[in-house]
Specification:
The chain is of the alpha+beta class. It is built from three helices and three strands.
């Protein structure tokens, strides 16, 4: 299996995060802004309590680029029960194994009134 890449090329994934934080929330999985492959990009927030700073991961299952950082998750977000916070590292290895379930959770959390943009 190829290694995860967090490089300058991965910065393009931040465009997906910027869209979400601006309120243009696509259904997941989305098209990857790095490799262009449809339905291969995923985004996961991990809230550390309501209104608090948490983590964010954006990754592509196809090209294995990822971006990880700290952010205040949107108010509509809630952590899914399937993610064990003890398994989270900078690379999205544990999240990739749960990508389908995380995407399903994401798609049910998109708040009414948040524009569901095109992937």
């Amino acid at each position: 299996m190829r290694a995860w890449r967090d490089s300058a090329e991965s910065d393009a994934l931040d465009t997906l995060l910027a869209r979400v934080l601006a309120g243009d929330v696509p259904r997941m999985p989305a098209s990857c802004p790095v490799c262009g492959r449809a339905e291969s990009a995923h985004l996961y927030f991990h809230a550390r309590g309501e209104g608090r700073i948490g983590g964010v991961w954006v990754w592509c299952s196809a090209c294995r680029c990822f971006s990880h950082g700290t952010v205040k998750p949107p108010a509509w977000w809630s952590n899914p029960d399937v993610v064990d916070p003890e398994t989270l590292t900078a690379a999205p290895e544990a999240l990739e194994e749960l990508a389908e379930r995380i995407d399903a959770h994401w798609n049910t959390r998109i708040a009414p009134g948040v524009s569901a943009g095109k992937p």
